[in-house]
Structures
1.
Amino acid sequence: MTTGIQVRDLRKDFPVRDRGLFGPRTAKTAVDGLDLDIPAGRITGLLGLNGAGKTTTIKILATLLRPTSGTVRVDGLDTVADARAVRRRINLIAGGERMVYTRMTGRENLWYFAQLYDVPKRQVRTRIDDLLALVGLTNAADTPVERYSRGMTQRLAIARGLVNDPAYLLLDEPTLGLDAPIARDLRRVVARLAAEGTGVLLTSHYLAEVEELCSHVHVIADGRHLAAGSPAQLKTATGSHATVRVTVPNPSPAIAEVAARFGATRTPADDGAEVLTLRHPDDIAGPLAAAVVQAGGSITALDITEASLEDAILTLTDRTARTEAVPA
Amino acid sequence: MSGLRPALRIFAAEALKQHRRLFGQPLVVFSMLVWPVLQLATTYYTLRPVATASPAAAHWPLSADPHRLLAFLATGTLAYAFFFSLVQSAWHLSFERTTGTLELLFLSPAGRLTLMLANGAGALVQNAWLLTCFTAAALLGFGTLSVAAWWMYGVVILALLVPAVAWGAFLNSLLVFSRDSAFLYTILDEPLWFVSGVRLPNFALPAAVRVIGTAFPLTASLTAIRGALLNAEPLSALAPTLTWLTALSALLLAAAALLLRVGEARSQRTGRLTLI
């Protein structure tokens, strides 16, 4: 049996009625020819700007939406033909406060979903206790959810998503609105689950989170696959470079010559100083600083900003937008 | 996930959910009895002066006895409470779209029809138990019960429970995919009273209304219950009604299964399950 989630040539069109109740129907394409692989035991990132098709993709994987064409297989099971078997293997956690019953307690919510997933009766109590401990809600287990804070409710939603001990976990902006310590705890939980063999697909607008967790990232725009690789590979592939800024209080023609030689831009700063800015794939800060000193300049500040995944995503999506803007 | 054991677990889960969401407050328990009893009293005191008068009694002998008239109306009120509680539960189920939990039900591997049946049954039991106890006590107290055999009480319970649960599953399946379901409250409240003979005997209704009434399981359910409890009709006499009730229940369950299949496929195609 093939393990992991395989997405092949996935397409999803939503029927849209343009004008009124009886207007003509058109199709809005949300996902267009997508290929993905989500292996067990790895956290795979799915990134893109708003409207890129991330949530639609996740919902197709969760069997909540049906593909217009293409296939999604979970451990060899088709999400359409074998939907029920797929649902036992997966779960979905989305950000926000919804998705739990507010008049039930935290423990009752988990018990309710344990029944729906037919969790073995002998395991229910232990699993609920373990999950409540995992998300730090043991002390609030028997309090109605309507008295929970936003963060507590979201943590309960996370526990709910783990109630069936899923082989694959689909996380759609799971840390949305969470305080930093809780988001950090969630990241630890996700990393631990992956280490124990759970396959995770993660979408998040917090790219530092993706960079920290994901060993492999897919970037999509307008429902189409743009690039894939590790965060470092994506940064390299898109030419996203570290930025070096050297502040020189006594600019001179010799400094200008150094800047020209390195390809740095010169920007006037306060008190007649000048900032040399250079984006470069290599570690160029040392040679640049040495050249400035050799040319008789002094340095009052030296900043190095590493390339970010955000830069890579923006570069990729900008490239696509530019390509599409060129008339055929 | 098929089989009786997982289904029973879903029934238990839905019962807890319904209890916490809808029936857990003391005021709700109070209203479950007071409101139907008020309705019953209103109907009784409106009908009694007319129904016990000699011309009416000639057409409807039961009405000549105030206790039997009250028993007739009490059975109507009870059966109506059973069926209308399922309209309410279907309406409440549609609220789960807004709270975001509806999607979770469809994310789970739980059988869809089982979920709808469990939801209806959970609401039914919790909504009607108090009134059932009250009605049973009142009928026994008045001494108006006239039953052919003790086991006919079992037939009465089945004639009330099975079609009501099928009706609930059908309504749930109809409304779970609908965003605009408030209209059902209007459509199914007064008309259900009227066409099913809750307050009046069927023969007093116009022929066209009687025909419409046959499509509602409450009508046949009431005929069977009243026949068994008030007129000591044996099983053989009730067989045609019970057969029709069984067929209607089967039809409602089949329609529910079809609606769920078509509705889920449509929502998977359009993505409308989460639109609010």
2.
Amino acid sequence: MQLWILLLIPIATCVGIAFGGERNARAVALGGSLVTLAWAVVLAMQFPHWQAEQWTYWPAPEAEAFPVLPGIGVAFELGVDSVSLLLVLLNVFLMPCCVLGSWTAIQERRREFYVWLMVLSTCVMGVFVSRDVISFYTFFEASLVPGFFMLAVYGGPDRREASFKFFIYTFVGSLFMLLGLAYVAWQHAEQTGSWSFTIRDLTAFAPSLSATEQGWILLALLSGLAVKVPLFPLHTWLPLAHNQAPTAGSVNFAAVILKLGLYGLYVFILPMVPEAVVAWAPAIATLAVIGIVYAALICWVQTDVKKLIAYSSVSHMGFAVLGLIALNPVGLQGSVYYMLSHGFATGGLFLCIGMMYERYHTKDLREVGGLAFKMPVWSFFFIVLVFASVGLPGLNGFVSEFLCLIGTFIAVPGAQSGYGGVLGPWFAAIAATGMVLGAMYLLYMTGKLCFGPLREPADHHDHAELPVDLNLREITAVAPIALVCLVFGLMPWPILHAVEPVAEEVLEPYPALVESHVERTERMEAAGSVAAAIGTAAERSR
Amino acid sequence: MVDMSAKLFLITPEILLLIGAVVVAVLGLSSNRRVRNAVPWTTVGFLVAAIIATDVVYDGSEAVTGADLLLPNLGLYLKVMVGVIAIGLVLVGIGMVDRRYEEAIRNGRAGFDPLRVVRGEYHAFLMLSIAGTMLIANANDLIWLFLAIELSSLPTYVMVALGRGTRRNMEAAIKYFFLGAMSSATFLYGFALMYGATGTLSLTGMQEVFATQAAAGGIPFFGLLGMVLAFVGLSFKITAVPMHFYAPDVYQGAPTPVTAFISFMPKVAGFGAIIMLCMAVGWSGHHLIDDAGIKVPTEGLPRPVHATLWVIAVLTMILGNIGALLQTSIKRLLAYSSISHSGYMLVGVIAGTAEGIDAVLFYLVTYGVANVAMFGALCGLQRHDREVETLDDLSGLWKRHPGMAFVLALSSFSMLGLPPLLGFWGKLDLVVAGITAGETPLVVIMMATSAVSSYYYLHLAGLPVIRKPDARTEGVDAGPTPWPRIAGVVFGVGILALPFAAKSLMTQAEHSTDASRLASPEAAADSTNPDSGMSIEAKGSSGRA
């Protein structure tokens, strides 16, 4: 029941918001999100597998199941492992910050806004705690509705296009994901005689499918998940959505919603279709690397701050994908760590931009800048978060980026770690240019925004009700995030340790598969050269 | 042969509805307004009685098992479903069809004229049509099937014409009637050819003959042609290609409550009939004969029938969804969307066997519930005393009628198949049935087209919430009676709550194919031997268990 309660607290908060009146909506939402946070912390303290050798779900598999369509084995089953629990914590941690960040920014239709925010929180947590593909899919899709309405009602001038694009892109992709999952479930039913949709059963079964089938399943799953990650070239919804969304929406989109895709890659694709992953890893990695460099170059020429940060997300998530398909524990740990640190850093950046936007009503780098003297507190937090994003040693971004790149670098056949991979130094080298570019565009943005002569929009007179610099509420919203960035940068071990058994378990079949894959390719190449040799010999003899 | 009294016992619900039709037809002619106001409630009362009667009749009675039906338990599910959703449809129509005239009488602008008052007729025809739809579940021969389909269709032709006065309405009524007559002729011709090919009118007899023919040298050409013609004709009832052209015009021209009715009831009738016919020919044991004269066994329906249905399904899904993209009128949009839903359900029919039929039956419920909620909201609103017409009329609805905006969003998302709403579970079931039957390409097309549908459903769900109210929507307010809105809210709650009961709904749907003669050819051949009747039933139920 514990996990169900976690999902129900935000829903109960919605009821409170609905009956609490327009004025109290934000207070109720803040209270509800704090209760959720507290409950999640309680769960995290109860979680028995932080330092486990073995990788297991918690609670026990059947403890939290709710049958829906027993005829075809559909039941809602909840459970967490350390990765999903960490992501839940990320979500509940950011939620109060989002509420505080929208405290004065949302003036109209407040109740609805906070209801959507709470529903979004439930959906996102639901995805992370699902142990059943149907409940996963349900929450994955249901998260579109609050996202859509937050974007469409409270967004910027292009909100309509942004919201439709966001919804349709993701919806279309995930339909094919459902198809792929249903196919696996059917094969499972055919061969074992009983229907089941639990991730446990399907991941145990799916690797026995043929390589061709695995390839198709990979394609189907990827069409749903790659949109969310987002992987180049399916990223085009993201800059628009992140740019147009209200502050809390941007924070949520960047920090949590993007992680749904990556989490899906981790929970479905890695364990389900290992053969196809090995075969297609270079292709996926190529897309990721293209995304890293391409998005970084786009960032460089942006004048809209929010758009710049949105594109930087595309670039950054590329690293996380690389780490994931490096197929060694280092990379996977780095990837999970990346999910968390990107969530905090980029979420915090969007929060800061929101605070600035509330004061100046512009996010154009040409119109506003040199704020360091006028808003020192704001500038301090902004710069800390930028450095976290850039990957300055000592902050969280560095740890994750470094691990992902190392993981990619050593992902060569017959690696010493025992985990051979199919990527290698080239991918790492090109991706590393993304790091350099990242430093360039982010510092360029910081320089324009914080330093140099003060620039303010021409029609700007005062900050309305807000003080010149951050007030206590805003500091409360952003300071915890900055603090976490620092702590994560200095003490990554607890989390990396917790993820290690998970990583080893998930990657267990891979070394053998990589080896046989490499062998097969070599044999084919050798056969090709032998055939060529025979051909030339035959020609000569003629 | 079952004796007459058992047969009559089996159709008690329909008999009740026929009595009800007579009663409300008379009540509706009363000059007393109170009596006239009681008409819808009398209708609801008879519908409730019919539902209870269904439960009693099917409660382990001999009449059901002895009635020589292809799907003996279908009636329980189908009749209860039709009854419950019909109650919603009656609520949606309360005070709507004859609103102008009744208002005129109340204001003293017009005197009471028995020739002009339509309330009694509307409800009487509604009940007749429902009775016809229910009768399909008990059809055991082609004549009965044909009469049941006609009984369910003919009243709807009149109902469409009830919104008399406007030109568009006249166009709708005439189109609906003539095209309907043509479709009846088409499938009747098909029935005749099937009779010619098998020499029997009884559906169970026909199943045996088809099975024997399939086992011998294949079903004769005329049998297959009859089948294909029957499907083409029936595609009118379910608004499938090639008989879908009327839908947008008729849906738009008919009074909104009638649109709600004809977008659900004839569909149930059509799918009931299609399932029966497919059962008769069977989803297994067919084969092709290749050039060398060797029999090649095939999966599913006989190839020509399969191909026909396949093409119909694909075109229906594609045309329905693409047509809907271009609409600005809500009712036209819903017409195209209902076309596409028929396409999805045809996937279940093609997949066939128990799973496919269950999925179609379950989908009908999910569609029906969302349909009532949607039309409840539309009927509950008016613009300058007229029906709301275009999508623009709905913009900014959240400000004045947040409840209705919510119901509209819920029902569109449910029709889109967004989890966790009811529609998703129906679609999931169809997908699973389709994949299980090896119809993966069809399922992929279904997915791709429902992806297209997200665009227009999103408009329908989003515009009332997103847009701000403008001058055009100033005139939009709540209709005179609250009942359509109440129906909308109740069925909207159903969209949210029924997924929790999806388990029992599914079990019911599965129960309806229990003890059916979804038999392989051997079993059907066995049943020519009168002693083996029991063993088939045992086989059927154990197969399901």
